[in-house]
SAM-dependent methyltransferase
Amino acid sequence: MTEQDLKPLFAAAAANLVFNAPLGEERAADLVRRLAPAGADRRALDLGCGSGELLRRLCRAHGIAGDGVEYDPAIADRARAATTDLDQVTFHTADATTWTRPADVVVNVGGSHIWDGTAPALAALHRLTRAGGRLLFGEGFYRTVPTDEVREAFGDLPDLAGLARLAVDAGFRPLHVAESTLAEWDDFESDWRAGIEHVGTPQARAFADRRREEYLGGYRGVLGFAWLILMPA
Ligand SMILES: C[S@@+](CC[C@H](N)C(=O)[O-])C[C@H]1O[C@@H](n2cnc3c(N)ncnc32)[C@H](O)[C@@H]1O
């Protein structure tokens, strides 16, 4: 399948998700609580924000304003459409690598590829997190040694200890380190594929079949997803 064929299928998958990451409601609420900013006039920033749901919840919960930056115009439009007048959130259709204004609560979930990998992402995000602020970094890692196929699909990722070390090397102190549960992963993968099943074409079904095999027969339990709350040292 060409990139042209895949784009609407990825869009259908994303449209069926609340968060485009293995994130359940309980953890989402916990992370929002942990990210409570201290002091007045604080601002949030979500780079690669997708639907913007986490940013909206964060800003609503703490009564702060925020910016979401999303490269894909259709996804950014969807984020705006879900935003009410009560939300103090602005969505920018832009490349996150061009964003220069730091914030107090910075979010980057499943978006390290924006800077071509974990270490450069952490370096860029450090520059954008104000002193005393927090970064929520949601990132993949290997829970066990991957097969060649899994490594080819997801690249050279660290283990969880290595990921925390990369954060320290980038100038952060890890305040919270956790990983998505298998149940969060199973729900995420199922909801992702269900979005594609709704398309209903033979091509969509073949794509959903491939993804199901890759997950259940390949990276399930091998690829982890970490939730790091980081403070600039
Ligand atoms: C895996 S999704 C995660 C979305 C969101 N953070 C979430 O957890 O629901 C990654 C998002 O980053 C966006 N993205 C990719 N490259 C980008 C860039 N250079 N600037 C801004 N957004 C980008 C994609 O369009 C996609 O919506």
About this structure: The beta strands are 43-47, 65-70, 89-93, 103-109, 129-142, 172-179, 223-232. The CA atoms of residues 70 and 93 lie 5 Å apart.
